[in-house]
Amino acid sequence: MKSSERPLIFVTNDDGVQAAGIAALIRLAAEFGDVVAVAPNESYSGMSHSITMHRPLFVSKVSQTDGVEVYSCTGTPVDCVKIGFDEILGTRIPDLVLSGINHGSNANVSVIYSGTMGAATEAALYGIPSIGFSLTDHSPAADFTASVHYARQIIGQVLAMPAESLAGLCLNVNIPNIPQDKIRGIRVCRQTRGNWREDFVHRTDPNNRDYYWMSGRFYNFEPEAEDSDEWALREGYVSIVPVQMDLTDYQRLDTLRSYLGE
């Protein structure tokens, strides 16, 4: 990218094109470059890396102002990245992809369920650096002031990194839901080990059909691990976890070859 050019920044989310979090992220992205945003027409939270295969996708332009284009898509967050790259951007290649700002944490193993991070990891598969931002507050009225402050800092630093460090970079950023002046800084850390255990509420509808509402709780296997994202958030830090899509368990390769063959 020439120094005289403004970066092209692609923005998406999983809470929907009308969510407050993506509006804040679009405004922030416009400080750094030209913006194309493609987001789901409604909430697709928890969709992970799912794509739409058996129904059509409809895309409509929501708004266009100087340097900012916003589109709505009837698909998942990953659909938004795919159709955005292949159809809306045309020959343009984004310098950075931003996903969020999510209403709710995507720390720990939540990253594997997250539509926010599904979109970010899809961009990384194209070799485009990406950042998923999440605030640990599910409220529709969440205050994104601190999130924007730290996202501005992180975006600026990522854009200043050398090109050889950026290809396929994917960052999972979570911001604690505390006042900005209480945040202690940023920690680069690893994903916390643990799992989600579900609670199902069993009910019956007016037609006497059984149905369930699902909720759950995260069980932290290592609450005192100071290099983990959950510890960082609990202690008042913004957590940054670098994420990769290669799911190979390299530590088991040699053992499995000895049992199962090369």
Task: Kindly describe this structure.
The chain is α/β, with parallel strands linked by helices. It contains seven helices and eleven strands. A nine-stranded mixed sheet has the order 3-4-2-1-5-6-7-11-8, sandwiched between helices. A two-stranded antiparallel ribbon has the order 9-10. It is globular, with a radius of gyration of 19 Å.
Features:
7 helices; about 30% strand; 11 strands; about 260 residues; EC 3.1.3.5; Stationary-phase Survival Protein Sure Homolog, Chain: A; single chain; 9-stranded mixed sheet; alpha/beta
Briefly characterize the structure.
The protein has 262 residues and is α/β, with parallel strands linked by helices.
Q: What is the H/E order?
A: EHEEEHEHEHHEEEEHEH
The structural domain count equals 1
Q: Determine the strand fraction and express it as a percent band.
A: 25-35%
Arithmetic mean pLDDT: 95
For the record, the CATH architecture stands as 3-Layer(aba) Sandwich
- SS-derived structural category: alpha/beta
User: In whole angstroms, how far apart are the ends?
Assistant: 44 Å
CATH class: Alpha Beta
Low-confidence stretches: none
CATH topology: Stationary-phase Survival Protein Sure Homolog, Chain: A
User: How large, in whole angstroms, is the Cα Rg?
Assistant: 19 Å
Helix percent band: 25-40%
Shape: globular
How many distinct beta strands? 11
| Largest beta-sheet details | 9 strands, mixed
Given the structure, what is the number of helices? 7
CATH superfamily name?
A: Survival protein SurE-like phosphatase/nucleotidase
Q: What is the topology, as strand order, of the major beta sheet? A: 3-4-2-1-5-6-7-11-8
